[in-house]
Specification:
Layout (H helix, E strand, L loop, with lengths): L1 H9 L13 E6 L7 H20 L3 E6 L2 H8 L4 E7 L15 H18 L4 H11 L8 E4 L8 H6 L5 E4 L4 E2 L11 E2 L3 E4 L26 E2 L2 E7 L5 E7 L15 E2 L9 H5 L4 E4 L4
């Protein structure tokens, strides 16, 4: 387990698109279950079922005793596409890995990203901005969270799971693998499926023209476009856009010169509007 954790850490990167070639699922076991034979026996049954389920879906599975560090390394690994947890939770709000809720995990991952980015020589302020963008969603699929209250709210699900993918959790305060859960108001022995709502497709460079902007400029009143070089924040591909306006707030006015642009003649690069979200960065000079 120690070797695997170190291997996961060595493969870490700084984006959550999960583009790694491998398809790994990491199943985390709460070490506290070793002190509770009955709970461990119940979890052993559902763990075996989930293990087969992940393998049937094409995942290469690994099982680790849960630690914060192991989960952080898994979150930052492009090859890890799914995670599962078997253990204790919080009866007041959804958590993953003991008592850590969505806000706590967002802070932990942001701090780790800042540390690793600074270690790579990234300016501290840029590291903070990039990490703030990245921690909005971890991009996992098929997350199983067998702990108390794991679906009392949707905060953990919306943080860990990519839009359109599935999260499985317990809607009751207490997760009990017993027939008694069927007659208890605040307990459940089953998992509920929750699909993360889809987001609107991201607009790629040169493909977007706003509908709300009036095309009522002429001559010198119009933005004639600016020569921009745009690229993804963590990729090497550079897009060259001559005669391009930037429209961060989609009001039909170029952010560079303050003039309206001719929608029918000039394409829009994502520019500063998407650079703030971390997708693209545009410059007036070549990279």
């Amino acid at each position: 387990m120690t070797f695997l954790s170190l291997f996961i850490a060595a493969q870490s990167s700084f984006a959550f698109e999960r583009r790694g070639k491998e398809k790994w699922a990491i199943l985390f076991i709460d070490p506290q279950l070793n002190k509770q034979p009955r709970a461990r026996a119940g979890m052993k049954v559902v763990y075996a079922e989930d293990l087969l389920w992940y393998k049937h879906k094409g995942y290469k599975t690994f099982t680790l005793f849960y630690t914060d560090r192991a989960l952080i390394d898994a979150i930052l690994n492009q090859n890890v596409k799914a995670v599962a947890y078997y253990g204790h939770g919080n009866t007041n709000n959804s958590t993953f890995g003991g008592l850590r809720n969505a806000s706590s995990w967002r802070r932990r991952i942001k701090a780790e990203l800042i540390r690793r980015l600074k270690k790579r020589g990234v300016n501290p302020e840029k590291a903070k901005r990039r990490s703030a963008v990245l921690v909005k969603n971890f991009g996992f699929k098929d997350v199983v969270n067998r702990s108390c209250g794991s679906l009392l709210d949707k905060d953990i699900a919306n943080l860990f799971v990519a839009p359109g993918e599935n999260y499985y959790g317990c809607r009751a305060q207490t997760y009990i693998l017993s027939l008694f859960a069927c007659v208890m108001d605040d307990a459940d022995c089953s998992m509920t499926k929750y699909t993360i709502p889809e987001k609107k497709p991201q607009r790629r460079p040169g493909t977007y023209r706003p509908n709300a902007a009036p095309n009522s400029c002429s001559g010198r009143q119009c933005c004639r476009g600016h020569h921009l070089y745009c690229k993804e924040a963590y990729a090497s591909q550079v897009y060259d856009y001559p005669h391009t306006a930037l429209d961060r707030d989609e009001n039909g006015i170029c952010d560079i010169c303050g003039k309206r642009y001719l929608r029918n003649n000039h394409k829009l690069a994502p520019g500063l509007r998407y650079a703030l979200r971390g997708d693209y960065i545009c410059k007036p000079k070549p990279w």
